[in-house]
Every structure is written in C-alpha cells, then in structure tokens.
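Message: Study each token:
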Amino acid sequence: MHTTRPGGTGQIGALLLTDARLPGGGHAYSAGLEPGLRAGVPATAVPDYIAARLRTVGLVEASATVLAHRAVLETPRGLAAVHDALLARTPSAPLRDVSGMLGRGLVRLVRRLAPDDPAVAHLDALGRTPQRPVVLGVAAAVLGASEEQAARASLYDDAQTVASASLKLAPVDPVDAAGWVLGAEPLIEEMVATALAVTDPADMPATAAPQADQWSLDHQRETRRLFVA
C-alpha cells in the first residue's frame, strides 16, 4: 500500500482508473444512454451519442479533472473552486447525485491506496458528494499519472461507459461497441488538448447538454430501469 505518491510514468495508475473492474460504482451508470434510448435514440446512433457527450459533458468533466490534478500538485485548497465550478456546470440534480456516488467510490480507493497523502484530507473537505471528475484528477495525481493521462482517462471512461452500457440495453455486437470507442480516438485526443488548455476554474468550458439533462430528470422517475442514470 502506497503512503507517498509513486514515481515512474503513472501509466499503470492511469490504466487502473479506467478499468471497468475498479470498485467505484461505474457499473451502475450508463452515462445517460438508458434514458436516451427510452426517449427514442436508436441503437445505431450510439456512436453519435458518444461523440456528442465527448464534445459537451466529456469536455467539461475532463477540464475539471485537469484543474483538480493541478490543484493537488500546486495549491490543494483550490480543489473547492474547481468543485464549485463543476457543480455550476451540472444543472441536473440527478446527475450531480450520480457523480457524487461515483466520486465517493474513488475517494475510498484513494484513501486505501494512499492514506497518508495530504490530498485525502482535501477530498474529505469537499463533503459527502465529491464530484467524480474532481476526485479523478486527485486520484490520478496521487497515483503518479500526468494531467494529460488524467484527461484522457476521463474522456475514455465516458466513451467506454456508453459503449459498455449499450451491450445491456440494445442488440449490440460487442465487437461493434469496441470499435465505437476506438473510432472516437481522434475526438478524444482533440478534447484532451482542449481540456489541457484550460487554466482557471472560471474558464472551464460550459458546453451544455440540455436534452441529456432532461432525460436524467425523466429517468429519475422511472420505476423500471437498469442504471441509475
């Protein structure tokens, strides 16, 4: 168990944070795909849905991840400002709740892997619902991953979450789902570069996804569902 931040390239840490087997609660989240399909989005449009998320929600969250990573390494007290900026860009209460649930799972991971790291105390200060992108940035820093690796992990995880959920929600060939994620690589790299260029919480992108926000509100009232959002 690590008590200090590991050295090296951080590549294993970055891979760990994108592993679907990580005990962080991600299996309960479809990144909005379930309510989208219920609303009439055809399964054939899932690649377009992945791309739309990467340009909107994905970019916002990757930017928050980068800023949180920097805050841990420079001024940890700045985490609260990043967290507040992300909350302001997440108007849907159900989506804030889900992000907080996933964030708590990552906090548990960081606390167990690096209990003596000062970043853990700053995560605790964010309250009971620390938003996942902020915790992801902290976790990446603690595990020795770079801010670029953290941004890529955030965006890859978003695309992979949608693709994985599609296998449970629609008649999708797993090979096709894998191809969708691979096909998103150029866009992911573009969004990584954009996220890395953000220098201040006030400048964090506010690319809205109002339809997805509405779907999340509708989904919260559903009594028969596979995913929480």
